[in-house]
Amino acid sequence: NMKSGTYTIDFDTRFSDLLNSPGGETILNTAFQSAWNAYTYDNTDIFYIDVEKLTLTTRTTTIANISTHKVQLSSGTNSKYLKNHFVSKEMIEGKARLLEAIRQEIKRQLEGFSNYEKIKEVHNWLIDNIEYDVNLESQEPYSIVGALTEGKAVCEGYARSFKYIMDALDIPCVLVSGTGTNSNGETESHAWNYVQLNENWYAIDVTWDDPVFVGNNVESAYLNDETRYKNFLKGSNTFFSSHFEDGNLTPNSMI
Predict the structure, then answer these.
(1) DSSP-based three-state secondary structure for 48
(2) Distances (CA, A) of 228 to 78, 158, 220, 225
(3) Which residues contact 74 (CB under 8 A, 6 or more apart)?
(4) How far apart are CA 193 and CA 158, in angstroms?
(5) Cα–Cα distance, 140 to 208 (Å, whole number)
(6) DSSP 8-state class, residue 213
(7) Coil/strand/helix, residue 20
């Protein structure tokens, strides 16, 4: 329903008691941000909503010193809460069909593979087919659209795409956000994944396994195994020396 950009989610008076308590408005706003993050972390196909255009509105009625609060999530004063370049529901659904066709084709080609082999093949396919969008040339560098249909993305687009495909393969996978300290000792906002294999969870950072090469040396573009799998299925002792979770994933902030 939210593909229309105008659909309103009506919570009615569900939060009225909370809003009548001290600090209730702050608690509700914080909870909304956490809920939105959880929703978009788990549903990487929600690529068309501009969260900055979503408005949590409260209408308060007071009778005999008793206040009742009705809460809605809507576009507020905006005409729609869609990103500017997604102009219609039909356009969004067309893009969604294309994305689904891509991941279903990947799934078809991996039939009969073990889960380890599937994870490895998807990791390699993303590296081979996505270029790190250094100059943010794509309209959608932070989503599966830029990564899978334009072949350009930053880390959030890589990580969302990896989860999007893992979901189709029924392999448990989560999107993780925080900071990463790169080989130059620089710390930056970052996103990666955890994936479950044989009942254990491992870290995987497709972005950092697809390094940006400076210059026109064609030979340097061929990755050796040490580089390609440096952040592939790693445990906490190794991975947490350079990756630090903080749960922050905000629009247009990921490197």
Answers:
(1) coil
(2) 44, 15, 12, 5
(3) 6, 8, 9, 54, 55, 57, 81
(4) 9
(5) 19
(6) P
(7) coil
Least reliable range by pLDDT among 10-14, 31-35, 78-82, 230-234: 31-35
Q: Work out whether strand 152-153 and strand 131-132 pair parallel, antiparallel, or are unpaired.
A: parallel
For residue 196, give the 3-state DSSP assignment: strand
Q: In this predicted model, what pLDDT tens digit does every residue of 80-128 receive, in sequence order?
A: 999 999 999 999 999 999 999 999 999 999 999 999 999 999 999 999 9
Give the model's pLDDT for residue 214.
46
Identify whether the C-beta of residue 19 lies closer than 8 Å to the C-beta of residue 69: yes
The count of other CB atoms within 10 Å of the CB of residue 253 is: 11
- The token duo for 14 is 């569900």
Alpha helices in the chain (DSSP H): 16-19, 24-42, 89-109, 115-129, 144-145, 155-168, 225-228, 236-239
CA–CA separation, 176 vs 140, rounded Å?
19
Q: How many CB atoms lie within 10 A of CB 245?
A: 13
| Higher local confidence (pLDDT), 18 or 249 | 18
**Cβ neighbours of residue 18 under 8 Å, at least 6 residues apart?**
24, 27, 28
- Per-residue pLDDT tens digits for 201-212: 999 999 999 976
DSSP state of 180: E
CA 18 to mean position of chain CA atoms? 30
Please write down the long-range contacts of 68-72, taking CB distance under 8 Å and 24 or more positions apart. Answer: 68/13, 68/16, 69/13, 69/15, 69/16, 69/19, 69/20, 70/10, 70/11, 70/12, 70/13, 70/16, 71/11, 71/12, 71/14, 71/15, 71/19, 71/28, 72/8, 72/9, 72/10, 72/11
